[in-house]
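Recap slide: AAA family ATPase, sequence and predicted structure.
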Amino acid sequence: MSERTHWSKPINLDAALAGAPPPEPAVGTWTDTSGDKSRTRALFYPNEVHSVGGEPESMKSWLLLLASVQEIKLGRHVMYVDMEANDRSIVYRLKLLGATNARIKKHFHYFRPDDAISEEDQRRFRLMVKRWSPSLVVLDGVTEAYSLHGLSINSSEDAAAWFALFARRFQTKGAVDGYDGPAIVELDHVVKDRDGRGNWTIGTQHKKAGIKGAMYMVESLRPFGAGKHGVSRLLLAKDSPGGVAYVSIGGKARQRYVADLHCDATGGGAGVDAWIETTEVNEAVDPEADKPLAEQYGFRMLMQDVCDFIGKNPGASLRLVRSGVKGTNERIALAVEHLCRDGFVANEGSGNRAQYVVKQEFSALRVVPGGAD
């Protein structure tokens, strides 16, 4: 936890001089078994402000609901400020993730504001932190919150004003009776241009500069929905305290890989099995150049995109597939070739007129060397 003080009052350095370790994340946990020894890891630091950004349907809200369920199962309080969904939807998801009615009612505090934060609201924030000692505070919908307050996401001054107005109000000035303060997490949207956005959410650089905890980007690997197993990748965009372990992936476009989020609704029951796991380091670091093309992660994701597009556009020509799927013409043609070879896609056209249709569902996460069987 980073202690807060005043302009004219220096921080007491005795603990740091005595060898106190730097802060470590404590909220949003999982067991990492990717190395020689298993260890418990986490995403969010107590008493710091974090950001989680991602496109719609990237499961970023599911990530924070999973963290919420973890905390309330431990008897800790969670404050969830929602600008996008509604109480019934959120409670339904919490119950799918295994939270009981009793736990939700006692430890999960849900807010759906429709007006700007007042001074009285800020005073109540402090009282609620004092009363409940929440371990997690979530704001789902930063852009909507800005709009509600007449703020611009492209203004540095407005970004600074928002941090002072909301997130900073939940921070404590130091540990009190073993309570370090809540991890504060803001869910944000990302720039739509995947190649051009880098590690940025929508808006000004000050939004990123104001994050003193960790900032994550969530990228969907496989969509999640009813009866489906969704997977999203958690990438580290910023880590001020420096306590989040990662490995570099992506060749020239280096990214800092932390873990994968799974939401599995294929079990046939009424629940969703959700968990975080870390890929083996050697799989994440190396772009898999030594593997056959059809077993390389990046190429299989392209095959997934191609198969999904053909499924939505039966009878598509190669030209149509190329126009609708992101990638080079050569790699898209190779993806179509591999899908046809392995029986996932068939060309039902005649002569030189190709018409591709899907024969069976393709999963980028299931590697079967030598074919689909």
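The first helix runs from residue 14 to 17.
The longest strand covers residues 229-239.
(End of recap.)
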